[in-house]
Amino acid sequence: MGILAVIAAGLASFVFGAIWYGVLAKSWMAASGVELDEKGQPANRSNPLPYITAVIGAILIAGMMRHVLAISGIDTPIKGLVSGLGIGLFIATPWLATFYGFSGRPMRLLAIDGGYATLGSGLIGLVLTLL
Questions:
Q1: CA separation for the pair 126, 130 (Å, rounded)
Q2: pLDDT of residue 1
Q3: Which of 1, 10, 21, 98 is 20 to 30 A from 113 in CA distance terms?
Q4: Residue 93 in contact with residue 114, Cβ under 8 Å?
Q5: pLDDT confidence of 99, banded at 50, 70, 90?
Q6: What is the 3-class SS of 38-96, one letter each residue?
Q7: Is the pLDDT of residue 65 over 60?
Q8: What is the DSSP letter of 111?
Q9: How far apart are CA 14 and CA 12, in angstroms?
Q10: Distance between CA 32 and CA 126 in Å, rounded?
Q11: For the whole model, what pTM was predicted?
């Protein structure tokens, strides 16, 4: 589980996120309250910063997950998947719930973003233990 595995796992999660949010785009835009342009698309869609941040974030998450999985002796794909799902569901999503609760964000947004955090983390765990 070296640097290439971390990068591959982070990129896998990022690509999954592109698919996830592509499928859930209308629901996400409605729940997030993101500003839309005249075509009904996010106004910041052409800004590269959110995409760069997402790629770097996914790679950083994969790096920390690699560390956690390694020191925990998680070395099979099923254990990696389950551990990743647990990290997403029981660490990342509760943080989002806290932030969204205090900021008055809709629970539908928590379901969308928490779903990505959970499944994306599961994918990272799977990829890290496959490579």
A1: 6
A2: 55
A3: 1
A4: yes
A5: very high
A6: CCCCECCCCCCHHHHHHHHHHHHHHHHHHHHHHHHCCCCHHHHHHHHHHHHHHHHHHHH
A7: yes
A8: H
A9: 5
A10: 29
A11: 0.93
Please state, in angstroms and rounded to a whole number, the distance separating the CA atoms of residues 27 and 10: 25
Q: First-to-last CA distance in the chain?
A: 6
Average pLDDT in the 95-122 region?
A: 97
CA atoms within 13 A on the CB side of 93: 23
The tokens describing 122, both together, are 């599961």
The residue among 116, 118, 113, 119 whose CA lies nearest residue 34 is 113
How many residues appear in the chain? 131
Best CA proximity match to 88, nearest among 28, 20, 37: 20
β partners of residue 36:
42
Contacts with 34 (C-beta within 8 Å, 6 or more apart), sequence order: 28, 42, 43, 44
Token pair in block for residue 74:
């998680």
